[in-house]
Design a protein that fits this description.
Radius of gyration: 17 Å
Helix content: 10-25%
CATH superfamily: Inosine monophosphate cyclohydrolase-like
Distance between the termini: 43 Å
Strand content: 35-45%
Number of helices: 5
Oligomer: single chain
Strand order of the largest sheet: 11-10-1-2-12-13
CATH class: Alpha Beta
């Protein structure tokens, strides 16, 4: 698999939907994660990311315009000890509770499926980063309908041990902007990571479609100490 430019990948697709990027900084010192949301409807675009303990949650930018909070208000990022969970829905809580009860990442997701938003049946994408005693590994998952068939759910998990510096994996919900929206296909894409947290955050945000982008979360976690730095960028700013 060839390494692709994350900037080029983001710019060439006007609507990725929601996206998760997980990898390692080019200096090899930090675990890197990014989560972004995009939207086409007024209800979906009426959101911001806000800090929530060690993680984040989505919140209505203008509560008077929020028509349906289901599927769009949730906690995308939560931290459980040395594990950081990131998802595009309330399966964040499912994974958190599962890991807390000694289930694996994959086992925790077996009770879930894609979102009930016909005709798109938006995939549930998830990731978990594990940092312990200077070691780092991560896993990603997608739960999606079987070629748009709501009677069947296909689940895939991808595990990455000791990921190389300067590279990441990128998974997103939709292949392109169509109606209905076609689900992501294949394994997470291999993309490059470069720069510090501010440079990387700027690169991602500036590459996302200006009309459809809503919010971006980026976190760099020091692999040796477990300490992190976070950046949040919201298109809607009061």
């Amino acid at each position: 698999m060839n390494v692709i430019s994350i900037e080029k990948e983001l710019k060439e697709n006007s609507y990725h939907g929601r996206g998760i990027i997980i990898g390692k900084s080019d200096d090899g010192n930090n675990a890197v994660m990014a989560y972004f949301i995009m939207g086409r409807s007024e209800n979906s675009r009426n959101r911001i990311f806000v800090e929530d303990g060690e993680g984040i949650k989505t919140q209505a930018f203008d509560s008077s315009k929020m028509t349906d909070p289901s599927l769009i208000i949730y906690a995308p990022v939560r931290v459980l000890g040395n594990k950081t969970i990131v998802t595009n829905g309330d399966q964040t809580d499912t994974i958190y509770d599962g890991l807390d009860n000694q289930y694996t990442f994959e086992q925790s997701l077996r009770m879930r499926e894609f979102e009930p938003d016909a005709p798109n049946y938006t995939p549930r994408i998830s990731g978990v980063l594990h940092i312990e005693k200077g070691t780092y590994n991560f896993a990603m998952s997608i739960l999606k309908s079987d070629e748009g068939n709501p009677e069947s759910c296909n689940g895939f998990t991808f595990a990455y041990e000791n990921p190389p510096a300067g590279k990441a994996r990128f998974i997103h919900t939709y292949m392109k902007d169509e109606n209905p929206l076609p689900s992501f296909e294949g394994e997470p894409k291999l993309v490059e990571i470069s720069g510090n947290i501010d440079e990387f955050s700027k690169k991602i945000w500036s590459s996302l479609n200006e009309e459809n982008k809503i919010s971006l979360f980026v976190r760099f976690i020091d692999i040796k100490t477990g300490k992190w730095n976070t950046r949040i960028i919201n298109k809607n700013v009061k």
